[in-house]
Amino acid sequence: MEWRKSLACALALAGMMAFGPGVRQAALAADTRNLTILGGGSGGLWAIISEGVGETLRRSMPNVRVTTEPGKDGPNQVMTSRGEVQFALATDVLTLKAIKGEAPFKGRKLDNLRLVAVMNPINALQFFVDAKTGAKSIQDIKDKKIPLRITVNRQGTLIDVATEELLKTYGITYSDIAKWGGKVHKIPGPEATDLWDAGQMDAIVEVSQFPTSRFYELGQKHDLIMLPIDPANQEKLNKELGTSSLTIPAGTYSFQKEDCPTVSSQLLLITSADQPDEVITGVLKAMTANIDYLHSVHANLRDLSPETMSANTSIPMHPAAEKFFRELKK
């Protein structure tokens, strides 16, 4: 009966708290029929991907009840670390910050987070400025003390964290920009493009696949330049953020005449170290068995493969995931 199952779960959780990690592991294993995956905002890309992953589990794990819920990069890591959910989508940048206990997770080192699979390996950092600013490189911003009016998305987001770290590698702070007469706006990209059209914005940073349609359209109305990141600063960023170097080919945007070296972030499926091996193995078996279905879920997943799913070196992988991908290669 349902009430008996609820009571058993309650007793298992009580025992988990009372008797420590050994019993906690057993209790988690007993409750593997209910799995929750956190995605992103309703209707957005992360919601689509999380529901796609959930559907692969429903197809291959009929005895498991799978729920997908809205989430957000940052809170997703916290809830996964606490064991409030079993899985979540998250960026590598904020997941590494969470593991290290750095802003925006200061004082909360979430070092039990583990990688299950890379879902989207390429999300390039793209730094656009209006040509009228006179900036042809990020170094120019510092040397000329250019009063940029720049948007970096909301406080504590991937874009905000990545932009602040990027500027830091060139010896620039948000405070410097304000001192030079500029302004750092903490608003989403779509709102920023409206401000650009209104003459109130002249720089924006985005982390996404490319080309991004709104910047292609913005480039039809304004004289845009994409600023490159030089190799030494890429290396600093990759070490600090867990990103990887990438080149956006010339011609990706109509205004882009040359290759643009930058860095790239990854979208991950994460879990906690406490998650039982058999659950992780079951999830990965379901995803790989339904890989063709995942390719159809969204264009961002069309190149998904066991090779891309296991290609991350910055976030520690769950041991069961390591074993799964290792055995696939045999």
Question: Which short descriptors sum up this protein?
Answer:
330 residues; D-Maltodextrin-Binding Protein, domain 2; 2 domains; single chain; alpha/beta; 20% strand
Helix-strand layout with pairing:
Elements (H helix, E strand, L loop, with lengths): L1 H18 L1 H10 L3 E5 L6 H16 L4 E5 L5 H8 L4 E5 H9 L12 E18 L7 H6 L5 E3 L6 H12 L4 H6 L3 E3 L3 H9 L5 E6 L4 H9 L2 E3 L4 H11 L2 E5 L11 E13 L4 H13 L1 H7 L8 H4 L9 H10 L2
Parallel strand pairs: 1-2, 1-3, 5-6, 5-7
Antiparallel strand pairs: 3-10, 4-7, 4-8, 4-10, 9-10
Helix pairs in contact: 1-2, 3-12, 3-13, 7-11, 12-15
How would you describe this protein?
The model is unreliable at 1-32 (pLDDT under 50). The radius of gyration is 22 Å and the shape is elongated. The chain is α/β, with parallel strands linked by helices and 330 residues long. It has helices at residues 2-19, 21-30, 45-60, 75-82, 92-100, 138-143, 158-169, 174-179, 189-197, 213-221, 231-241, 277-289, 291-297, 306-309, 319-328, and strands at residues 34-38, 65-69, 87-91, 113-130, 149-151, 183-185, 203-208, 224-226, 244-248, 260-272. Strands 1, 2, 3, 4, 5, 6, 7, 8, 9 and 10 form a 10-stranded mixed beta sheet that branches. The longest helix has 18 residues, at 2-19. Helix content is 45%, strand content 20%. Helix 3 (45-60) crosses helix 12 (277-289), helix 3 (45-60) runs antiparallel to helix 13 (291-297) and helix 7 (158-169) crosses helix 11.
CATH topology of the largest domain: D-Maltodextrin-Binding Protein, domain 2
Q: How many distinct helices?
A: 15
> Oligomer, anyone?
single chain
Average pLDDT, rounded to a whole number, is 88
